[in-house]
UniProtKB/TrEMBL annotation:
It comes from Nothobranchius furzeri. The chain crosses the membrane at residues 79-103, 115-135, 200-217, 276-302. Belongs to the DHHC palmitoyltransferase family. It holds the Pfam family DHHC. The DHHC domain is required for palmitoyltransferase activity. This is Palmitoyltransferase. It comes from the Eukaryota.
Length: 383
């Protein structure tokens, strides 16, 4: 090659390198803000997670796509937990105040002494059971696996905590940690329902349902009377127009077309009493139906020896094994009676009264880390 052509080629290459370096430096100065880079990196990570290995299935794709929605729901639930707790306390307190301020004076002048004694004993007992179990469900830790190294057996490793998970343990995205024998995260408790507070949660639901049904049934006649009174007040207008034959018969003086009705015979206090009774009956009836359905569902799960999460897992396992011609059995189902005795902590006959019908803070059966598996049905706790 001619020396001049070689020199020209080197000059062109040098010029291109300079232009490239200038463009790269400008690109570096015009980078996105840090918060935008984080969002871009997060979206890129979600896209890459859709095909991270050969085990990707529809569940992985669904979780990856809706991960931002799950994070938002967890964040809102975490911060609004105390709002839900305050709402439960306010609504329950309002019903108690109406009972003592409005209904109790009426009951003392209407019911016989025997009925008054029955309502006083049952109502206060039910209220004590509701308050006790709700407080314990909120304040009792659901149970967490140990953070330090130990020799306890585990079935898997949590992908978020990167810690060993014992049997029946699941990760809660709202609490951001693993929960022993996790059932679900309850926003009305602002706490997870796990091994150590599952009984308190179910007892609260049961006694709250009984209390709502009790109020709804015992106050039905008072509700009908109060509702009819309010309907009568609404139907009373300040004037009823009189036209046609009424004017011809001379019912009203000439030029007057309205008949002024007298004021209703109810005072402001009586109106508030009627509205309070209607409010209490509607609240307890609707809460009793909704909470009653939830209580029945959890009672069915307890009878089967499974939690809400395990219900879905066991159902999927049963379908998977059925394709191979096999039958799936829940390894933690010890028969209905044994399941209830283990759940309630009943170890002798007197415990049905002292631990079930009375407030009791006894711990549950086992530590939540290891579980006995009985392939045959026999009494785990002889009663």
């Amino acid at each position: 090659l001619h020396p001049d052509s070689t020199l020209m080629r080197c000059s062109v290459l040098h010029l291109l390198r300079c232009v490239r370096l200038r463009l790269c430096s400008r690109r570096g100065r015009s980078r996105l803000p840090l918060w935008a880079q984080r969002i871009q990196a997060y979206i890129k990570l979600l896209a890459q997670s859709l095909c991270f290995n050969s085990l990707t299935d529809s569940d992985v794709v669904f979780d990856s796509i809706f991960e931002p929605v799950f994070v938002t729901v967890d964040y809102v639930t975490r911060w609004f937990g105390m709002v839900f707790v305050c709402l439960v306390v306010i609504l329950t307190s309002s019903v108690v105040m109406i009972t003592y301020i409005v209904l109790l004076p009426l009951a003392l002048t209407t019911y016989s002494p025997a009925w008054i004694a029955w309502h006083s004993l049952y109502g206060n007992w039910n209220l004590i059971m509701i308050a006790f179990h709700y407080y314990k469900a909120i304040k009792t830790s659901p149970g967490y696996p140990p953070a330090e190294k130990n020799d306890r057996p585990f079935v898997s490793v949590c992908k978020k905590c990167i810690m060993p998970k014992p049997a029946r343990t699941h990760h809660c995205g709202i609490c951001n940690r693993c929960i022993l024998k996790m059932d679900h995260h309850c926003p009305w408790l602002n706490n997870c329902v796990g091994h150590f507070n599952h009984r308190y949660f179910f007892s609260f639901c049961l006694f709250m349902t009984l209390g709502c049904v009790y109020c709804s049934i015992s106050c039905r006649n008072m509700f009908l009377d109060a509702y009819n009174s309010l309907e009568h007040l609404d139907s009373e207008k300040p004037g009823i127009p009189v036209t046609g034959m009424g004017l011809l018969l001379g019912l009203l003086p000439s030029g007057q077309t309205n008949f002024q009705t007298p004021a209703p015979p109810y005072t402001f206090k009586e109106k508030m009493f009627h509205k309070s009774i209607v409010y209490m009956w509607v609240l307890t009836s609707t809460a009793g139906v909704a909470l009653g359905a939830l209580t029945v569902w959890h009672a069915v799960l307890i009878s089967r020896g499974e939690t809400s999460i395990e219900r879905h897992i066991n159902k999927k396992e049963a379908v998977r094994l059925a394709q191979w011609g096999k039958l799936y059995k829940n390894p933690f189902n010890y028969s209905k009676l044994n399941n209830w005795k283990i759940f309630l902590g009943v170890e002798k006959k007197s415990h049905w009264v002292t631990r079930v019908l009375l407030p009791s803070g006894h711990p549950p059966h086992g530590d939540g880390l290891t579980w006995d598996v009985f392939p045959v049905k026999r009494d785990l706790i002889a009663v």
